[in-house]
């Protein structure tokens, strides 16, 4: 694109370039390929135009682009396969210099573009965010939503700024669109910023506009609600149903995120889980390792098994897990932990066993240094289950690399930490009330006891001569029990109970309400003791 044509383009007025970038980006938004059949020529035009805009900033002030032109340019360029660190910096800094003459839409568009470019300068982003707050009264819902989304993507956080922007979104809630609700909820969850009233209004607004919502928005909304730990049965059920209705137009990441969110929110419906899993398997060629890992992990939390879960295990077994950038350590550890949970609660199959063998082979090859503390604990639990069921190739290696020793040591440290906290802290009221009732009845009790050779943590251990290994009393927390269906225990709680039963003479499981009834506590412990002695 040299010669006279290239020269004419380079010398075009800044406003002309800005308008062109803005128009082309809007075409891209609608799915129309900007530039038509120009092919590589479009990238040349983009590079020339970006350079021309940066160069115009060196001209006399009256010939320089204004704030709107700069905003349109950065916003437009973010839609193309273009990136020039120096030009982005020059244009962003120029936007900051013109912040007083900028509009709220212009500021939000610039922040959105910088997030798309993954370009970050703390001072620049801080000034643009502060400018957005100053213009908050004239801001539209989309601008506020895009600003929060961009700041979250860039990893920039200021509680005061985020609070004001979130409040601004709530003020415009009646004129907001589903994508704006989901973007804001996603951003607030990434920030770790939570206000129950704000989140409740945004979630309700999303449900009111389900008819025009997109799969990614539904997925992001459920993911955010799970991160917050916010639950409303009607809202979660409607969001899950809407996701199932849009299953054909969803992406694998949407399915896995929804499964993770539903299991984390402790909501379960076998039909919904199977539908999401079947579609994930149908689109497995588009899925990432984390999508499979999240899915099997979610099934474990929800105690969900069956032919579809076997199909998922078969797909994972055929994955090339030897590429660390693909199957990262967290995905390996979560998948093996999920297998251990499923196995502990009686959900087993040849397909699941083959998956465990396939993944454990890679784990042993990477060695302990590749895994974090929590991941080593997860791997040790998988090793224990493999030992119990006699699964060859499913165990941690005791030889070169020291995987078994490192994981076992981390497991012991974790159990010791749990016991120390139980002994030093007041703990849950229910535990202390149950302990007091048993002591009053003449029993020896121990808070934060240990059972078995591996010193497994027992929340409350009752000692008695008829039961030399003790009776463990476990008080269920809200996290152990599903909201829907009511009373269903999580897979994680069921696995812990299975591990306890292997190490002591009996287990008594009580709700928090039961633990506050002295007579019932003593009755259940004595009933379990009689059963153990028979």
From TrEMBL:
Lineage top rank: taxon = Eukaryota
Say which species the protein is native to: Dunaliella salina (Green alga)
**Residue ranges of the RNA-editing substrate-binding complex 8 protein HEAT repeats domain?**
70-305
Name this polypeptide is given: RNA-editing substrate-binding complex 8 protein HEAT repeats domain-containing protein
Q: Which InterPro entries match?
A: ARM-like (IPR011989), ARM-type_fold (IPR016024), FAST_kinase (IPR050870), RESC8_HEAT (IPR058977)
Organism taxonomic ancestry: Eukaryota, Viridiplantae, Chlorophyta, core chlorophytes, Chlorophyceae
* Pfam families referenced in this protein's UniProt entry, alphabetically: RESC8
